[in-house]
Batch of 3 targets.
Target 1
Amino acid sequence: MSNPSSSHYFARGNTARGAHFLYRSAFHGLNKIFILTGPPGTGKSTAIRNLADSLLDAGQHVQQFHSPLRPDELDGIIATELKVGIVDGRVCEGISGIEMGEIAYINFEEAVDRRLLFPQHQETIESLNIKLADAYAKAYESFLTALRIHDEWEKYYIESMDFVKADQVTQNLIQDLFTGHETDTPTVGRHLFFGAATPKGALDFIQQLTAPLERRIFIKGRPGSGKSTLLKKLAASAETNGIEVQVFHCGFDPNSLDMLIFPQLSIAIFDSTAPHEYFPNRSGDEILDMYALTMTSGTDEAYATEISAIKERYSAKMKEATSHLLFAADIDSQIKAYYVAATNFSVIEECKLHLQSELNELLSDLIIGTKSYV
């Protein structure tokens, strides 16, 4: 299995269940986490990106956690070998409850010259923050409505589902994937997102995350054909049998699962339907068609008219939600602009140099072997 220099994820999402955070699991087990505090526009994401680049230049593997509002920006990173995380404190809800090593706060707010934020600026920022919260609330409401429409869609297929066959598919897979790899020590899955709803629509890192793996199983099917249930049962079995598993939640409905990666087995199995539809294109790729294996033949045709109408309503609501996220991104940019204008970036540079110095020291310890971070 090849070892790419970086892996890309999301650990928060704008979902039908509201803002959803997976940082507690994603950052679990690290020796140290640097939490960057301060308002938007103070250069936290840029500093995180620069630190990621310096780690990559030093030959380190970096896990990059992208912003769902601006996927080209980073919310956080993990230096894998060092077991060190760096994250924007505004987005990492739940992280302080992790059982782990040291948490250090780096205060970027010290760079903000409050004298340059006049009372009228403060009033405008407060007004914009209210609009931002409202834009997010409307996006979540639209996503939830879309989920309810999706539930209607699923019903047509659930009624045609052979659950005995679906369970047999699951049991066969468990035997196929895990036999001979079991251990006596149960594991705990690591929970992540491979994609997110963004202002430009759905975005995912499936291809990048699965590229190094020897075997990829593309699950095909329809809404309600048991894809998420299959993945949940596989994840539970992996944990029981002591097999390391990365558990990827659906960026639309985090109560559902969309992918599992078993790093030690070099295997991925994932829901390969829209909006993250891919097809086998190399050796080691295979399709698992839940529709063909578990559904009454002709279900698509029997309910074609009803399903077509549901698809249209669903698509319209998803577009509506995306438009609210686009509005949120615009408002967020306006808020940032006020803080950018009031920020002394030489102070930010000092914060970044302090972080770089800390990382260099840890890298030095790792290289000379005085401490073990692996």
Target 2
Amino acid sequence: MLEYKAVWYGRNVVVVDRFFPSSKLCSACGKLAESMPPHVRAWTCEGCGTAHDRDVNAARNLKAAGLAVTVCGAGVRPQRRTPGGQSAAKQKTPRREP
């Protein structure tokens, strides 16, 4: 349904690897936390000391990864498995007939 809506509004869908460490990657300095159990909702980066809300930090990292794929192409992080046979690259929007 997301792809359908994207085509409807002239947008692109970017698929990011489901194992991308968006929650435990510091969006300020890029340091990766070693482990983070699901019950941890807020954390402080050991590298730069930035305090993070887990969901907000993940959203920032996913946005940055999607923008990087859009600008640079695939290769932000290799996928272990390709969902639906598609790569991590920006999907082409089908041309609409006038």
Target 3
Amino acid sequence: MAESVVTENGEGGDATRRDFIHIAAGAAAVGAAGMMAWPLINSMNPAADTLALASIEFDMTKVQEGQQIVIKWQGKPVFVRYRTPAEIQAARADDRAGLPDPQADADRVKEGHQQYLVLIGNCTHLGCIPTFGTGDFGGWFCPCHGSHYDTSGRIRKGPAPLNLVVPEYEFLSDTRIKIG
């Protein structure tokens, strides 16, 4: 039979070993709980690829008159169009047309930069990507369900309920914009 050693305070050596085992088991349990909780907590952080694209800058000299460039921002296509004077005139003339989502052309562009139109390139019906120049109104056409947009990105015909979205953007200079 094992002998129990009595210490000065009257407790046996088994009690101190038992305390050590309880403390070690508790520490292991806390460590295991932390390891299980870490993936859950880490998944709540924003993805690194979206943080890098919270805002982007774009050089407008890459776009020639009558041309459209598509850039990617926050995983979405953004249309940057350098409108011709005829497109601007058509958009302004359509301000008085019966629009499903009424909005003046001047409200969709920045003052002094009316030739540049910046839009998120997703149809407001189901998120398809419309093509330019194939619609009935000289603007964009969504081939998936037949929505037609004018040269200002306003819905004119089809199932889309809203105009193409104008993202938050600002001109940093005459040739650079910051989206986001």
